[in-house]
Amino acid sequence: MVERAWAVAGSKGDSGRKPESRVRLTGMALIVLALTAAVLSYLAFTVWVPGRQERYEQYRAAGPCPAQAAPREAAAEDCLVTGHFTVTKTESTFTGKVTVYEATLRARDDDSRDQDDDSRRTVVRFGDSRPLFDTLHRGDEVTATGWRGDIVALSKDGVRQNTSDAPRDEHSGNAALGVLLALLAAQSLVFGAVRLARPAACAPFVWEPYGRWLVFTDICVGVGVGAVSVWLDLPWWTVLVTVPVLVGAVMARLLSGRRRAAASSAKTTRHQDARVASR
Fold it and tell me: How far apart are CA 62 and CA 205, in angstroms?
């Protein structure tokens, strides 16, 4: 969606040949895009990241539930409840992007006659096959840890693995997305404002070459920094500095290269003109 909007904003940098009304309309579309991205970035840093961080801290602070606590009591006390299950099936599915690992569980005290009743089963998902999922087989007895109605971990023979429902301190990817949206909002606002202020002369605030490079640089740097930060388990606030600095460095390098190429081309043209004049 972002690339399409920017492409409309200045295909091949030829905005000067378009009617001014169309250029202004594109500028208004860019400003709307900027406002949308700004709102999403604001929500990311005021709702999404703080909310996930608070949930993670509450999970870390939760202690074991009192013995024989009823499910409602456990939920009210916001504690960790332990249950015993039997594995009835394990399955790994490739979704086209990632592999989802699922284990189907049946409560050990389930004495229902219909052992094939899926409504009595609980399915838990994992983001990785290690260290526990690979060792699970049908009939294995496992211990599940529950929190706020979700199974957050399974363990067997001293080996424990968190499920996909377990809160994690991995907010750097979310923060990188928030910074990416903020950069796209700022750039869209500038390009849109220029089109409204001077529709007959938008250059160089057009798709080619600067708009395209800005958008692709933002996306590549934002996604790359977010992935590396999650992999290295870096604090989420580090991306607030890393992403803008890297985007600025990449764009400075690109601008410098284009200026050198333009200067070299101009120098070559002057030499050719001088040769022609000397003849």
Answer: 53
